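Q: I'm writing up a methods section and want to include an example of the input and output format. Could you take the sequence below and give the corresponding predicted structure tokens, formatted cleanly so I can copy it straight into the document?
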Amino acid sequence: MTWDAYNRRKETLRDLLAIADRRRDLTLTELLDTVDEGREAFANETELLFDLQMTWFQRLSGQLDRLVTESVESPELMAVTAWVNTAAEMPGARALLDAHIHETALAKAFAKEQAFLAASAGVPMSHPDLTVYGRRIMNSARESVVGAVRAA
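A: Here is the clean output for your methods example:
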């Protein structure tokens, strides 16, 4: 991919994320069709999902970095807080990722995110249940977001 193509793809992704934040009812197919360059930048919905997940993961990592330097919370609560904050910043991406949580193509990416969350919460990287702990943290964060929406 050339730099020009890369930059166009990133710009298209920003446009798609902005639309997804406003229109959380759109499917991936509908979302790609809302932007003229959508189909040029992404050959299919799976390519878009990979970029959404990578963008989400980068933002989550940034949230964790900030909280590590600012927070007095427990490491697990810090991981939950980072996930919740990222979901608040990227509601459209989170909704699309949640709608495709069982997508086989993304299983490895989701497992890496879970391992990252668990390690951030203090679980050793060599722990055999690292992703199980990460999934628990993710589910706890997701439930706190859903609970906050119900309370509002």
